[in-house]
Amino acid sequence: MNDIISEGALEARRAKYKPGTRVELVRMEDPYTTLKPGDRGTVDLVDDIGSVAITWDIGSTLGAAYRADEIRLLTKAEIIREQARKVADTGLSNMFATKAVFEIAVAMDFYELADFIFMDTKRYANLILTGELDDVE
Fold it and tell me: Which end of the chain has fewer beta carbons closer than 10 Å to its terminal beta carbon, N or C?
């Protein structure tokens, strides 16, 4: 198998995995890593050989190698749920105090959550009550 990435594939990979994008590990070929499927992280960059450099939430900075490892983009709904959990973990506000949660989300750079609260307070309340959130556009 030819592991050299074409220029077109590299550009497509960079367009898909932009810096700041949240991803989840599906599988990794590295037998020495402590990363496991389901671990999440934030994309730093895609290098010239197509590896995706990721800062993982567990503290690792191991990249996902082109063709050897598999990662997936988190959906917007997954990102909003993740951000809501992190805001709740701060203990700074009752999660139903939408104005306070909005301000905390902005302060934490959780713009997906802040936008969701602003645009759809009713669905936000349902998320807090049930933990459920259908896909968000």
Answer: N
